[in-house]
Amino acid sequence: MKCASSNATAVPRTTGNDVIPLATPGKRWYICTIGEHCFKGMKLVITVSTAEGPSPAPSPGTSAAEAEVSALRSCVWILAAMAAYKMIMA
Question: Which residues form the Phytocyanin domain (predicted)?
Answer without folding.
Answer: 1-50
